[in-house]
Prior knowledge:
Blueprint: H1 11-17, H2 58-70, E1 75-79, H3 82-93, E2 99-103, H4 108-117, E3 124-128, H5 133-139, E4 144-150, H6 162-171, E5 175-179, H7 184-187, E6 197-201, E7 215-219, H8 222-235, H9 241-251, H10 254-272, E8 278-282, H11 292-298, E9 306-310, H12 313-322, E10 327-328, E11 338-340, H13 352-357, E12 364-368, H14 374-386
Helix pairs in contact: 2-9, 3-8, 10-14, 12-14
Amino acid sequence: MKSKPGKRFNYDTRILHEAGAKDPSTGALSVPIFNASTYAQDDVDKRQPFDYSRSGNPTRKALEDTLAALENGTNGYAFASGMAAISSALMAVLKQGDHLVIAQDIYGGTYRLVTKFLVKYGIKHTFVDTTNLQNIEKAILPETKVLFLETPSNPLLKITDVEGAVKIARSHKLISIIDNTFMSPYLFRPLDLGVDIVVHSATKFLGGHSDLIAGAVITATEELGHEVYTVQNTCGAVLGPNDSWLLMRGIKTLGARIKAQQESASQLAFRLREQKWVSKVYYPGLPNHPGHNIMADQADGFGAVLSIETDSLERASRIMKNVKIWSVAVSLGGVESILSYPAKMSHAAMPAEERLKAGITDNLIRLSPGLEDVTDLLDDLCGSAKG
Ligand SMILES: *Cc1c(COP(=O)(O)O)cnc(C)c1O
């Protein structure tokens, strides 16, 4: 057998040739879908790799090894959704009486998990604006166990200095967790900067085709991996073999997709900035974005999501009514362009006053360009805004 390519290969090559790239038993360039719940045991006294598919499934295992390889982690775990991944990661490291410091502009589902569920089990939290590292330091209590980050934030694309945040977490012996959904491992690998656990909604860029719901947890150490596995096997929110295969299929084109989508996001950001009806563009790739330099330092790109603020509510409504190529929908990271309206979608549950305080106005629109021609995408937005 040829030796497996290691880190000596470039990332684009690694996506296709590490871990779950090939079926080890036949050499097939696509791992089979093992629709099996149980596995015949030849000798009950001997452990075999698979015995029951909640505990392990060969298709899921191939995906999990791929996820670990792409994030430069030791262990990867695939879950039934991003929220299953996030809740399982938190359950793995928190216990009654613990406290977590968590980024303010966190994904809505994570906000609900922390504020509605974890508190029921005696786990407290403090939300902080993590773009200022001093806020993290100030919020740490003797019982703080976890620092939970998400960068860029949603929908205002605020940037946190991850290396600086990890330094603070380390000095207080906290476990750092980051939601890397918006960047994908192609552009950002936080474990390399000392983060302990990476979580993903694989529904977005990793899957990339708006055709499945999935989540991932990748750990920096075997020990943390074991803790996450215990929750996965105990609570059982595993990803099924069919979706595991579909996700692996999506990951094969991650590099090609992200590069094209990022290029479109960048072009849209620069060109929309020149439109009279656009009052603000939020994109870390713009040189005047407050997090631009940090992002340039810590990541391999600026991502493929941007937000714009229109000059009026009527304008925002007109765009949503008139667009023909963009789909008005929740979610992001798919090959078809998606336009979201945070005030009525992702942040609808937030009281209007708090939303405005956070900078999420009723004129704000989030854009996740897909693989369509960027001029068509721009024309669709501009025509709809004026039409
Ligand atoms: C979508 C999303 C989630 C939740 O993932 P699901 O797959 O929908 O459960 C978590 N974090 C971020 C940043 C997301 O965009």
